[in-house]
Sequence to fold (254 residues):
Amino acid sequence: MTDRPHIDSSKVQQLYAETHKGYSALFTKQRSGDNFCFNRRVDVVRELAPTRILGLLDCAVGSGEVTGSVLSNSTVEKVVVNDFSPHMMSLARSYLIPKSIEDSIPAILFNQDDIFHYLDSTDEEFDCILCIGLIAHTGRLDELLSSLRRRLSNNGVLLFQSTLANHPFVALHRCLTQKRYQRKFGYPIAYYTERELLDAFARNSFTITESRKFCIRIPFGDKISKRANYHCERILCNVAQTWGSECIYKLLAI
Ligand SMILES: C[S@@+](CC[C@H](N)C(=O)[O-])C[C@H]1O[C@@H](n2cnc3c(N)ncnc32)[C@H](O)[C@@H]1O
Fold:
């Protein structure tokens, strides 16, 4: 089992209360390394999502761009988006409601809850679940995977993103910033190595059907020069398919 320090969810909520205003800007076409990586995240999720989905759950919708890309590209019958931050939920509503009208998407159910509580209290099943950008802020990898497994229908897929702790740039960045991050925000980011992720998927009866790595994330790249860092990410896009610092796994319940 992969133990991590406990993450106090009230601190995570506080972080998003303070920073939500800048979150949507990460998905604009501005030339920075961060923007490049968030847009790659959207593209990879869209590419990996099934084209026909009966029930879609986004565990942590954030400002809605990731969910929106799936809704634009796939035929979806029922959509539940969850997030425990009222601030992020409000961004998601502003982004997704006009989009759902424009693209004739069925009504979206906005659910504001802690994901662990939601997964354990609902008996709904989904054939596609998005868990993108969440594990870093919850830890409790096995607990989350086992709850997600129970809500996935037969042949359902889970798209699961994590930053990779064994990537040398992630390891360096973490080593240089984790104490400061914890002092500032009151909780540590939960990072997992590829080995830890693969073992946890197997323990919780998931098999990997596809995985995509992306983004090199040069430490402090945007602090040095947003534009230069953007161009580095763009040029190294193919390299990142093998040496990327983030991975999205497409998991099938077995
Ligand atoms: C990094 S953002 C990711 C949002 C979106 N999935 C994306 O990729 O852009 C993390 C989101 O997770 C939400 N979150 C963190 N912990 C949560 C929890 N325990 N339950 C529900 N939402 C949570 C935060 O409010 C925030 O909106």
About this structure: The chain has twelve helices and seven strands. The CA atoms of residues 35 and 156 lie 30 Å apart. The mean pLDDT is 96.
